[in-house]
Amino acid sequence: MKGAVFLGDRRVELRDFPDPRPGPGEVVVAIRASGLCGSDLHSYRDRPGQVTTSGKRVVGHEPAGVVHTVGPGVPDEVAAIGNRVMVHHYAGCTRCDHCRSGWPQMCSTAPTRVFGTHEHGAHAPFMRVPAVTLVPLDKKLNFSAGAAIGCGTGTAWGGLDRLGDVGGSTVAVFGQGPVGLSATLLATARGARVIAIDPEPARLAKAQEFGAVATIDPSSVRATTALRDLTDGAGVPLVLETSGATRAAGDGLASLAPWGRMCVVGLGGEVHFDVLDMHRSQMTLMTSWSMSIVQQRQCAEFVARNELPVDALFSHHWRLDQVVEAYEEFDKQSAGKGVIVFDEP
């Protein structure tokens, strides 16, 4: 089969790999959709000698598809051939407390394996994974939506969960890329009043479609001032930072109301604050690492139950043989979410 690999220096290409076969406790998923995630851009842009996958492993960690083959020891109730599934893209020991509570990325006894980095990922027709990583995909959701929930949209869900009960509160979402837009959509559906911040007009327009009550362009006004104005000087009780920009993180902290909570999910930036300045605010600063496998299922069920338009996140659909063009477009970070789709046999 053909699979996409990163070579560094903004290069990606297709290479030949053997068709995978499942071992004990494993399944092979026939991929129907494989999302492009913002975190992949770090490896895509990296210097050739620093790319973790170094052209040896198939990339892509937002898989959705159908169970194709099943290895020994996998019961039908877990993975029957033909089942529609997503994949939680981490694997741990399965035995420690973190793994058993649905957080294999925080495994305490073995190095975490990340599909698309340490193991072959989903930018290929087939992908071999442990059966315990599978998450059911409701028939109400198409495979592209399942791919988004597998990381980007699921990461937004995980960040909102970290903030707590957002219903009835004002949430400032910094960044309106695929994760930020997902947060705007999900937080609105969970009863929050969302203020969306992003310098890209098209993304702000999409945020309004997804329910944002106000938008801020930080390239034309100071976000902190605008947020204070929108809250009658009180500041916002909740901030979700998805952009990975250091300035956005600083503005988020400066915009918090007393007792406010801020969760950082965007990668690449830094968070700085003077303890003396923030000491009396009683603020809480936290991070969120994607989501647990339980939260991935809960997010998918919530999206299906509330018929949320996750499909509207996508601005581009690509075939696997267009992967070079796909990442060149995605690298601009000015459009919506992209996904590689595979035809059913």
From TrEMBL:
Cofactor(s) the protein requires to work: Zn(2+)
Matches recorded under SUPFAM superfamilies: GroES-like, NAD(P)-binding Rossmann-fold domains
Domain Enoyl reductase (ER): residue ranges: 8-340
Signal peptide: none
Catalytic activity, EC: 1.1.1.329
Gene3D superfamilies per UniProt: Medium-chain alcohol dehydrogenases, catalytic domain (3.90.180.10)
Recorded catalytic activity of this chain's protein: 2-deoxy-scyllo-inosamine + NAD(+) = 3-amino-2,3-dideoxy-scyllo-inosose + NADH + H(+); 2-deoxy-scyllo-inosamine + NADP(+) = 3-amino-2,3-dideoxy-scyllo-inosose + NADPH + H(+)
Highest taxon of source: Bacteria
Pathway(s) this gene product operates in, as recorded in its UniProt entry: Metabolic intermediate biosynthesis; 2-deoxystreptamine biosynthesis; 2-deoxystreptamine from D-glucose 6-phosphate: step 3/4
Keywords from the UniProt entry: Metal-binding, Oxidoreductase, Zinc
Keyword Metal-binding assigned: yes
SMART domains: PKS_ER (SM00829)
CDD domains found in the cross-reference section: THR_DH_like
Role, per record: Catalyzes the oxidation of 2-deoxy-scyllo-inosamine (DOIA) with NAD(+) or NADP(+), forming 3-amino-2,3-dideoxy-scyllo-inosose (amino-DOI).
Family: Belongs to the zinc-containing alcohol dehydrogenase family. DOIA dehydrogenase subfamily.
Protein name per its UniProtKB record: 2-deoxy-scyllo-inosamine dehydrogenase
Organism field: Streptomyces akebiae
